[in-house]
Amino acid sequence: MSTELLTEQTVVAYLVEKAIISAADTAEVEVLTGGVSNVVLAITTKDKKLVLKQALAELKVAEKWEADQRRAIVEANAIALFHKLSPAQVPNLVFLDPDRFILILDRVPVGSTVWKTDLLDGVINSDVADILGTTLAHWHNFGETNKEARLQFMEDSLFEQLRIDPFYRFVAAKNDLLKPVINKLIKELEGDKTTIVHGDFSPKNIMVGMDDQVYILDFEVTHVGNPVFDLAFLLAHLLCKYFRTDDALQEKLLRTCADRFTSEYANIRPYADSLALHTALIALARVEGKSPVNYLDQAQQDALVIHTKGILGKGLNISVEALFEKRS
Q: pLDDT band for position 66 (50/70/90)?
């Protein structure tokens, strides 16, 4: 059953009804863009700066992609947990409406930039990668050692709907020769229930404040699973941006981000030898999957496809450094 979606015109009345703001407040509403899975609205009053997210039943992509709206409840639980662990990096959860799949959280400081946009603009700060590697490793360690926390996120159909199917199975269906290695990687993900995994650890979900404070958002794919996925998901985005540029300095900085991210993580906990294979597959899915990136031209897409299929076709575990090497 579909749920009525909030709009710029209806959100203020909803917030007043739920006592999030007062009827006497003057509220400014802004539609935030960039996501494909939610209605996202920013609400500003004299005393509050909030972001409201409402989960969509069908994602806004070219291929048909349905997803359970209960992911809003999962995300709310994850925000509450990770805000306790990293209050400076994860905004506070203000409100959850489980019936309409709506959550409200404090907005990160105005003026913060999306790390994806920074990277595409050539503003590549590898200090951000350090923080992300350290933070992710601490989160994974926490999830691995806290059974009670893991119990909140054991239901993994959302990970199947939002990651395994559109990234792994969809690409396998297009590439018969790669099916054996992809099926092996799927088995590795599905057979590991080690820790709490973010599931969408991507530059589009990372914001950098004017004081270089790093904020991590969008926890709707949080689940108990294999931690290699979080590392591979971020590295795949860096790899896509690496293939987008021909600027030698930007290439070097993106390689440095990848190296420092994984090195800082490895200083705290080890990662799987299969990291490069998962990264190559996810990067390939950003061209051939259900949610392709929109910033690679045809020649760049072709180069990335050749590179990633070459790695997957050999099925060999390689280093992160070797992964970030273009072949002429």
A: low
